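SAMPLE LOG
Freezer: B-3
Tube label: C17
Construct: single chain, 132 aa
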Amino acid sequence: MGNLDSLLAEIKFDADGLVPAIAQQHNTGEVLMMAWMNRDSLAETLTTGQVCYWSRSRRRLWRKGESSGQVQRLVALRPDCDGDTLLLQVEQAGVACHTGRRSCFYREWREGELVTLSAPEVSEAELYGNKP
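STRUCTURE (predicted):
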């Protein structure tokens, strides 16, 4: 695990042991979502190739797609210049957002109002079996 340890030493986790991670579709550049990672989720992601985050609300590891089937496979990891933000280039299976949309960034501020740019591709009930 030597190389993994050296990478983890380069990452600047915050006081809660977390680092923001932006997921981007590797072949289109589409920004899909932002979530948090800790040392364990980052190590698991790099070891297995399946993206794993830290859920602040559940206080546990969150393997993307574990309840919805909408998994992310890691293609590339890019820490930023300061090591305090991660860009995960992924292959997204299905939708990334819990609302059933491809991206969590589906709204835009236009001329004084927040406009919805895309409709859900799948219902939350289909994703999670009626539990949001």
